[in-house]
Amino acid sequence: MSPTARTLALLRHEGYTAQVVERFCPYSRRRIDLFSCIDIVAVRPGQTLGIQATSGANHSHRRDKAIAEPKLREWLLAGNRFEIWSWAKKGPRGKAKRWVERREEIRLEDLAEAVVPEAA
């Protein structure tokens, strides 16, 4: 099961209506995310959440990529939320490992380290 499928299942369990918004481009053979950083959009009353779903090993890379994306600022300024969800098998040594999600919310203040275009 992929990180995206695990994320969708958990979102729906938590009461969200969720949809994958990335698409595959056959010409470049790449996946293209909504606003270059969102794989899934989830909604419930009063809340819209954009999620980047990934493996545990890629969490920090996806965070750096999202923070550097200017379109994420617009997403957040519109009142939406954005989180990175990564999945890894974890558990005590010698015991069965279980899939565990790590959630990290990215806020406007987290984007301060990224380059901000000057207002005209």
Count structural domains: 1
Reading the helices and strands in chain order gives: HEEEEEHHEE
Measured distance between first and last alpha carbons: 47 Å
- How much β-strand is present in the residues? 35-45%
Mean pLDDT across all amino acids: 92
Proportion of residues in helical segments: 10-25%
Oligomer: single chain
Largest sheet composition: 5 strands, mixed
Would you give an account of this structure?
This protein is an alpha+beta fold and 120 residues long. The chain has a single domain (3-109), classed as Trna Endonuclease, Chain: A, domain 1, CATH 3.40.1350. Helices cover 23% and strands 36% of the residues. It contains three helices and seven strands, in the order H-E-E-E-E-E-H-H-E-E. It has helices spanning 3-13, 59-67, 70-77, and strands spanning 17-20, 23-25, 30-32, 40-44, 47-55, 81-90, 98-106. The strands form two sheets. It has a five-stranded mixed sheet, with helices on both faces. Strands 2-3 form a two-stranded antiparallel sheet. The protein starts with a helix and ends in a 14-residue tail after the last strand. The model has no long low-confidence stretch (mean pLDDT 92).
Layout of secondary structure:
Layout: H1 3-13, E1 17-20, E2 23-25, E3 30-32, E4 40-44, E5 47-55, H2 59-67, H3 70-77, E6 81-90, E7 98-106
Parallel strand pairs: 5-6
Antiparallel strand pairs: 1-4, 2-3, 4-5, 6-7
List descriptors.
alpha+beta; 5-stranded mixed β-sheet; single chain; two-stranded antiparallel ribbon; 120 residues; Trna Endonuclease, Chain: A, domain 1
